[in-house]
Structures are given as C-alpha cells and as structure tokens.
Input
Amino acid sequence: MKSLKPYQEFLLYIAVMTVLLLLLWWMEFRLLIVQNDYELYLAFLAVFFLFFGIWVATKINLQKAKTIIIEKEILIPETAFMLNETERLQRNISQRELEVLNLMAKGLSNQEIADKLFVSLNTIKTHSTKLFEKLEVKRRTQAIETAKKLQLLPPTLA
Output
C-alpha cells in the first residue's frame, strides 16, 4: 500500500474545506435563511476568502532553500615542488619566460603581467609566443597544462 505522506497536506486542505462548507451550510439554513440577513453572510464569506487568499499566497510564494553539495577531490602535493631544471634547459626556457608562465598560470592578462614585470605589452607577447613555440602549444591553457606535466610549474598554484 502506498504511503499517504505525499498527499497529507492535500488531504488536510480537503478536510478543512469540508468543515468550512458544512459550517456555511449550517449558517445558511439556521441563521441567514431564517432571518434573511444576507449582508452578514456576504461579510463572513468576504473575510473567509480574504484570509484564505492570504494563506494560499504565502504557501505559493514561500521560497524554498535549495542546498547543493559538491564533492571535489583536491590534490595536495606530499612533497615540496621541485622545478625540473633539465627540462627547462633542454627546452631553452629563460628565467623571464618562466616568470611570465607563472603569472599566466595565476590567471593574469598580458597587460597585467606587463605591469607587474615593468615591461611593455609587446615584450610579454613576444615571451608568450616563444613559450608557446618551446612548449609546442597554441594556447595559454595548453601551455600551463604542459608546463605542469613537465614540472615547470607546481601542480596547483594559489
């Protein structure tokens, strides 16, 4: 047998509406029809539907908080990062190019790198182009990924 839990609130609404309809029916036959006092009947209906409308509006517009849990594995190197000097020398990457690569990995734009290293934008573009050639890549993201694989950059930068 299925659980009535999902329908519990709906069944409560039905029960309340049934009781209210019986009350209205009783009032109609006992008080209002006998006395012909339709103004009282209409006022009762107006107040009832006013509060019922306010209650329904609060139920409909109630913002429900939605919690999303994201589990992500964070890799923390067990040993300190050691620059692969042999790979750097083999690919003929200068210290300045390595600095530019480090700043690229931190997400800085060419203009921000130029400002930080006190050089012109064209110099940074030249260093970037040479780095791409030496690492045999076409984009910054590929250069950063390749440099991490070759241990020219730490696996994660803060």
Observations:
- Residues 8-35 form the longest helix (28 residues).
- The CA atoms of residues 73 and 125 lie 35 Å apart.
- Residues 85-149 form a domain with the Arc Repressor Mutant, subunit A fold (CATH 1.10.10.10).
